[in-house]
Amino acid sequence: MEIFNYGFMQRAFLVGILLATVIPCIGVVIVLKRLSMIGDALSHTSLAGVAAGLILGINPVASAAAACIIAAFGIEAIRRKLPRYSEMSIAIMMSAGIGLAGVLSGFVKNSANFNSFLFGSIVAISDMEMYLVIGVSAVVLLVFLLLYKELFYMALDERSARLAGVPVKQVNFIFTILTAAVISIAARTVGALIVSSMMVIPVACAMQFGKNYKQTVIYAISFDVVFMIAGLFFAYYFGLKPGGTIVLVGVLSLLLIFTGKKVLGGKG
Amino acid sequence: MNAIEIKGLTFSYGNTPVLNGADCCVPEGRFAALIGANGAGKSTLIKMLLGELPLTGENGTIGLMGRELKLFDSWSQVGYVPQNGMASYKDFPASVEEIVQANLYSRIGLFRFGGKKEKELVHQVLSQVGMEPFQKRLIGKLSGGQQQRVLLARALVNQPKLLILDEPTSGVDKENTEEFYRLIKKFNREDGVTVFMVTHDRNCLSELTDDVWQLQDGVMKRVIEERKGENHGDI
């Protein structure tokens, strides 16, 4: 196929499939803990890190990761201060992140570079960025498998998980770092404004079919990989922006699933 | 030995006192209920019992299974059944089997998945509460009463000595509530599991419980003592 004759498309597929494998691993836990908006808040805050990195001349992916980690712990700190209105912490941190990104972006000399993080540039990533995605994906996947039952129990019922002996604080800490790492590498490739959709939509699709947690995780990964491949194909052959196309494929699939279930359910 | 021993417990949220020198003891093998109006501090007390809220020497002491709470580390001996999870589990994509097995965490250990032995334990406890046929079912597809029986199985899978239940039948219909109480009573009477249950359901108290404690104005007082003829140890 013509699409695979180009090195940049081969890289895009490799990186895309890796991200589509690890993003739902984080997404399934975030969704089940009813914290879907955290992905949005962290990805927006990562833009402030990107801008800071570009201004200071350090790797913007690394500075985005640092900003995500600070934001994630900031959200936790505000939640502890305002336990009855915990969702407010996400809104506060998201506003702070967007505000800071907006101000700092004014000082970035190469605005095209900054803008590439908004919607990503999966077809224009360097070898170094590809290796970074491979490394981070491998670590995230390994840790997710090692902490599989801990993350499941904590998503189900954190209090009972703690009583059963799960080291809740430590696992939450590790999960925060993983989330920040995934969001920052995904921001560069699929876009900071899009990454949270990639966390939530495949999980929403998988929840329509999964008969247990294990199946739901496998289905979520499968859906995201299919959305990624289909999105890249559509983007290439119709000249569309890949990040947005991937998400739209996911949203349309979810709508089709909802509609199909309603129609079939109605007949049944 | 007292399974639960609370002495002079005080707790405030900011300037609002919730517990004001509460005392209570539940000897091993007893079935005790805790009642109280909304906002009386029942949830706070449960949180303190489960070690979720800070407990310094100044705000009283809690003993569990004969040990001070600060030193208590045998949490697998304590089973906990939360309030009806109907709303929170509605779309949760987990099977009954997965939910019960999750509580075998300390037995399975870090970086391992459950094996045949753990699956066998899960099947056993599910059959004890009459939920074995539903083990592959999604938790959200069960009725409120069935969900509570699954949560009871989860609490019992480690064969605990103390069972703490937080309004387990709120939102559950009468028939399922009665079945749930029958099971709890059976585990209490036949297996000697000590039960401490927070409840709003005053109808169940006289038939089911040995002692009823009421939390009011931050203090606990015992209001009923049933089955006086039976010897359950000193109170």
Describe the structure.
The complex is a heterodimer of chains A (268) and B (235). Chain A has 268 residues and is mostly helical. Chain A has a single domain, classed as ABC transporter involved in vitamin B12 uptake, BtuC, CATH 1.10.3470.10. Helix content of chain A is 82%, strand content 0%. The longest helix of chain A has 26 residues. The mean pLDDT of chain A is 91. Chain B has eight helices and ten strands. In chain B, the strands form two sheets. A six-stranded mixed β-sheet of chain B has the order 6-7-8-3-9-10, with helices on both faces. Chain B has a four-stranded antiparallel β-sheet with strand order 2-1-4-5, covered by helices on one side. In chain B, helix 7 links the parallel strand 7 and strand 8. Chain B has one domain: 3-Layer(aba) Sandwich (Rossmann fold). In chain B, helix 3 runs parallel beside helix 6 and helix 5 crosses helix 6. Chain B is an alpha/beta fold and 235 residues long. The relative contact order of chain B is 0.21. The chains are: A mainly alpha (268), B alpha/beta (235). The interface between A and B is medium-sized, with 25 and 29 residues.
